[in-house]
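Action item from last week, closing it out:
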Amino acid sequence: MKNNFLKGLVLVGAFLCFSMAKAQTVSGTVSDATGPLPGANVLVKGTSNGTQTDFDGNYTLDNVASGAVLVFSYVGFSSKEIPVNGQSTINATLTEDAQALDEVIVIGYGTTTKEDATGAVAVVGSEDFNQGVIASPEQLIQGKTAGVQITQTSGEPGAGVQVRIRGTASVRSNNNPLFVVDGVPLAGNNTAADGADLGAGTSSAKNPLNFLNPNDIESMTVLKDASATAIYGSRAANGVILITTKSGKAGQGGKFEFSSNTSVSVAAKTFDLLDREQYLDAIDQYGGDRSALDFGADTDWQDYLMRTAFSTDQNLAYSNNYGSGFVRASFSYSDQNGIIRNSAQERITGRVNLSQRFLDDKLKIDFNGTISRVNDDAPMITNTAGSTGDLLGATYFANPTWPTDPTFSTGNDIIPSQALEYFKDMTNTNRYLANISAEYEIIEGLKAKINLGYDESSAEKNQALSGNITGLSNGAPVNGKGFFANNYNKNELFDATLNYTKDFSNSKLEVLVGYSYQSFKTAGRTVQGFGYSSRNMDEMFDELEMSRNIIENSITGSYQQYGYDADGLFVNRLFPEISGNEALSAPSGVPLTAVAADTYDYTDELQSYFGRVNYTLMEKYIFTFTLRADGSSRFGPDNRYGYFPSGAFAWRLDQEDFLWEKPFPRLNFV
């Protein structure tokens, strides 16, 4: 008995010694077609023995059995298995897996796969974006997604945009979708200051996405139906567009990218207008006085107004993936000129995206930040001036015998050269958008995430209509009219979410619960001036600035509006002690004849609770339920919250055996 026991111990010891003798250290390099892959995973198949490659793509793995199989994997690449077979050096080259990249899509407060998405979701990645002269993000996906209509309000650089995902749902409010940039929902209002009606109509609002460099965008996800959008509550009634910017994941070992392009724009088509002789012959034909309407010139006013516009776009980016994190920084300069003279947009942007993992990859910190400056020049082109009241209208109705000299005047007509030379509109907008998030894996399958977002914009607009202009009946001739506006917006966000994922034998459960608080501050003022001493438009800007500074420094206490003219100064106060108009002593030294101003300052708040449950059964049947409760400071205390539930079901027919076991029955017709 003892002999048998001793023999057993000897056999076990010999087996262990043999196994240890066969265990070895394996090292090597993991790379792709362009170079080493830092942060790639190397795992002994069927065990928890694994490691990650270093900065240069190198790895070392101990205690590897000679008959083991190594599995090499990296995000966006196909996994590769290589038998050890006693080798001490094993190098692996991974290939990109486009299908794996496409499978993961961004949804509200998380990600999913195309197969597991129950709602109507469309994803357009950078490889499918529109090419050419792209001035703003939404142009990247124009015509790329079924059911999504994207149009610009005009052809000027930086013009407003209309995006329709679910048709027109509101009679008076904005019908554009909710834009979410790297997890931060944007306010959606016009960040550039609105213009005034100086006698030639008001101009359209600018595109609020102009501050984003299209070259920084990795993908855009369109959430269309109620199931996909309900997680964002009331603001998602018109759909949601999730914008994800580029990270440094692909920058293994450090990578610089530079792109430069120059574009030329010309009018695609022009009207066939009458020249000098055709115009004068028409005057004779209809019984007019030819000599009275002949001013001696032969002007093609369309040619005078339009130009061949040259635009440039420069982009420099650096990205690096160093295993435990990645970084991408970019700088861009864009100068887009319109085909109408005096129309242009200049954009300067800088962006930094960072991601870093800590505590054995349990904690992940992400930072996304952008800073931009947008300068807009606009001519006297408006959407409320009527057929002849602005630059375009005046051009198409102008007498071709008029000279292009802006000093020429008939006394009653708007001369195109005057509308071009004696009007100036400049807007400067600074914007800062940043968010930082921390995600921690509490236990396996349970993750907590906090996201802080900050979006601030400040804009100043100056408009001047010189007293040299003629043909207007709004008082601008001789006197001049001007306008100044500043607009300040601040958007602050706090999100906290818990996400739990559990795989069972034949099903999968994912539960998301969260809380969100967002505040939107809007403040600014508009000032109109009349009666300038100078007819130089830059000097008119200075005169209006001097006038408003003198007047505002003479007013004590809070006010909403003020007005100044030859009769004195009045203010309109709302809080706290006086309500209504109040006459004050007029300050001295004001260079303008009349000044009127209005101010605004208000803050809206949104507090929300939301949850989502995804349940997948047998990889065939997918159930989704979402509920969000939105509370807004805009509503009264008795009706402050709105509730937005949704449910969806998807059936993956491709996973059903009956589709593949035998063909469908055939129908025979006699």
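Closing note: The longest strand covers residues 507-530.
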